[in-house]
Specification:
alpha+beta; binds calcium ion; 4 helices; 35% helix; seven-stranded mixed β-sheet
Length: 217
């Protein structure tokens, strides 16, 4: 009976609960993020990153700079991390050992932050408080204000989370650019030739019909 229930659970889980996030863990066992985190029914690839709000979130000067630009949505994102990512599992005890999350070096707890609003130089953030297992404080999602110039690299107990940004693509090299320009110039020349050839044909046709008119009269 137990086996049968386990079998049903295994079968039902991927359908009922959506995709399970895949955790990104370095060979040293540090959690750097997770792909396919279910936040309100949409899957997001999340990364943990130290730095300053002003650098990590497009200037950190308006709500549209943020991945989750309302308290409700940001809270949902934070809770999703607690429920789906900060768990003890085969890849690491990411619930009970806060300092194996990238950017967290404090044994006791870690606050993983995502800004959702900003006023002047103070951003209001969601704070996923991941506590270690053996103290009375429990994991929770709350809010916190932080100066937009505060660098979480300087704080062992703070790190940001955000939607993973695409790898920066290399700017076209001068060689590639000159080939492109030459190609465009070639197209323009061809177009010009084609239109003057067209004009010549029209003139020739016109002449022919004129001649036709003169012979018929
Ligand atoms: Ca901005
Ligand atoms: Ca915990
Ligand atoms: Ca940090």
């Amino acid at each position: 009976m137990v086996t049968r229930i386990a079998f049903i659970v295994v079968l039902a889980f991927p359908i009922g609960a959506g995709a399970i996030p895949s955790l990104n863990v370095t060979p040293d066992g540090i959690l750097t993020g997770a792909d396919d985190v279910d936040i309100g029914g949409t899957l997001f690839d999340i990364e943990f990153i130290d730095g300053r709000c002003v650098d990590l979130f497009d200037g950190c000067d308006e709500a549209s700079d943020f991945d989750f630009p309302s308290q409700a949505v940001a809270e949902q994102a934070g809770q999703a991390l607690l429920d789906q990512v900060f768990l003890d599992g085969p890849l690491g005890d990411f619930d009970s050992v806060p300092e194996i999350t990238l950017g967290c070096y404090f044994f006791d707890s870690c606050a993983i932050l995502s800004p959702f609003s900003v006023s002047d130089v103070v951003a209001t953030m969601i704070r996923v408080f991941n506590d270690d297992a053996d103290v009375t404080e429990t994991d929770r999602v709350e809010t916190q204000n932080l100066n937009i110039f505060t660098n979480t690299t300087d704080f062992p107990e703070f790190v940001f989370f955000r939607v993973k940004r695409p790898e920066p693509t290399a700017a076209p090299e001068p060689g590639t650019l000159s080939v492109l320009v030459a190609g465009l110039a070639g197209l323009a020349v061809m177009r010009r030739r084609r239109s003057s050839a067209g004009r010549a044909t029209a003139i020739a046709a016109g002449n022919a019909s004129n001649q036709g008119l003169t012979t018929s009269t």
